[in-house]
Design brief:
heterodimer, A: about 250 residues, mainly alpha, about 45% helix, globular, B: about 120 residues, about 75% helix
Chain lengths: ~250, ~120
Amino acid sequence: MAAFDYSSAPFPIRADLSEAYRITWRWLARPGSWWTGAEKLAIAAASRSARGCALCAERKQALSPFAVDGEHEGEHAGVAEETVDTVHRLVGDPSRLSRSWLEKLLAQGRISDGHYVELLGIVVCMASIDGFHRALGLPLEPLPAPEPGSPSGYRPATAVPGVAWVPMIPDGKADGAESDLYSGRAPNVLRAMSLVPDCVRQMRSLSMAQYVPIAMVPDPTANPGRAISRAQIELVAGRVSALNECFY
Amino acid sequence: MSGVPGGEALTALAEAAVGGDEQALRAARESVRRALGDEALVDAAAVVGNFERMVRIADGTGIPLDEPMAMITADMRAELSIDAYGGAERTGEIRGAKRLAGRLLSRVLPTAFKLLARR
């Protein structure tokens, strides 16, 4: 049976959603820029199981999330301790992350900024696909089997440090192999993971199916034929963002 | 409430989905189904998923608000206390001529978008 087969689902689910999710599943299984397929899937599994972690719940209530130590709960086979902690912080309390936290993490020398961005790309894909399933009360899709091979080590030559905590490809510099990522003046959220271009591609693919195509975002009257209006879409978007205390 | 059709049901869905309360989520799904239909429920769930992703991209990379958006939303953010969010420190304060320009734009843009919608 193909992944994301919704033929038995209690609601009709658009084919573009299942196709976008399959694209992400295939990406997860493949070696990436910095992690192998097996490592990416281990991160995905850790990300999925991070919800419900008692340590994360305690940290979220604490005045500072860095004042509480302990062991994370969940599935962590094949994932180093600092990577598990990174995954859990991104899943459980992202609005209280800081530049200094990331700098200390990278200074440990075990993962690079590229590893971190690719890890972030995996965590956010899992958050969006699993979030969709949980909202509908559907079972979570089993993770795929990893494909063999080594990470490419690819780093866009145009990615440079700037306004974010990680290097990004600046406006007007997404060309050559990255020309499909964005053109002209691109918002920071589109450029945020450009250090690992495939993470931006995944984001675009999922946004097209789950929200609106990137080109339609700036026009608040645009709607790609959804069953809810753009105003209803933005109401849900705004509420989810506020509940996550996301300033951006 | 928001004035958006089905707004109460959609808000309840968003809150239950993010909060993780299964009982509330079941009730919220039924509310959306009754108010707006099954396809609307699926589309709303997709938006929930989308923004569970987007907030973590923003907060995981520390990106500031883009300047045009920061200018246009400066007054609104202050009014809604959004500037109290932890991530607000990543975006510089908008002052002086930029604050004034943003205030003017924020008054003009809603009318411009309404005109666009009518076309």
